[in-house]
Design a protein that fits this description.
With 186 residues, this protein is α+β, with helices and mostly antiparallel strands. It has one domain: Glutaredoxin, CATH 3.40.30.10. The chain has 5 helices and 10 strands. Strands 6-5-4-8-9 form a 5-stranded mixed β-sheet. Strands 1-10-7 form a 3-stranded antiparallel β-sheet. β8 and β9 form a beta hairpin. The longest helix has 17 residues. The protein starts with a strand and ends in a 6-residue tail after the last strand.
Length: 186
């Protein structure tokens, strides 16, 4: 299993706009429609990655804990489904329903959104403030498949708590580690 780190985009970068299909509702949704009043979490995930499978339950818990506190959550899969059919939209819908994702699970077929965000791995997390300026990018927590550290979501939770309490988020942030995004071959 490849271990690809986040790119660690510059803080204060503005969130790129997008309109993508939600695999559950079938609707086309945009960043502007989905953003939170206080914070917006954009997560690049997929179905087959063992790193994402390892944290899926915590993603659901975090979203359920924070979505009623002015935080919007958006999951996006940008993987090449020709070579990774388990990441196809119909399977994305099944996974979202099975795991009871409390957030939309969007499909980035062109991979343009992943490129605009400079996403590198799954999972890759980006947190934006109310003005859609990047305040956090990096890991969920220190847990990885096989390292016996419990999945807590501490890093993401701390960043969200700081935003909600109008406190500054530490600039030292650890990159996420996961499978590389499965880019289409030209």
């Amino acid at each position: 299993m490849a271990r690809t780190p986040s790119t660690m985009v510059a803080l204060a970068t503005h969130a790129p706009e997008f309109v993508l299909p939600d695999t559950v509702s079938g609707k086309r949704l945009s960043l502007v429609n989905l953003k939170g009043d206080v914070a917006t979490v954009v997560m690049f995930i997929c179905n087959h990655c063992p790193f994402v499978k390892h944290v899926n339950a915590e993603l659901v818990r975090i979203a359920n804990d924070y979505r009623n506190k002015g935080t919007g959550f958006i999951a996006i899969s940008s993987n090449d489904v020709a070579n990774y059919p388990e990441d196809a939209p119909d399977v994305m819908k099944q996974v979202a329903l099975q795991l009871k994702y409390p957030f939309p699970y969007l499909y980035d077929e062109s991979q343009d959104v992943a490129k605009a965000y400079d996403a590198a791995c799954t999972p890759d997390f980006f947190i934006y403030d109310k003005d859609l300026k990047l305040v956090y990018r990096g890991q969920l927590d220190d847990s990885r498949p096989g390292n016996d550290i419990p999945v807590t979501g501490n890093d993401i939770r701390h960043a969200l708590d700081c935003l909600l309490n109008d406190q500054s988020i530490p600039e030292f942030q650890k990159p996420s580690i996961g499978c590389n995004i499965k880019w289409k071959l030209d």
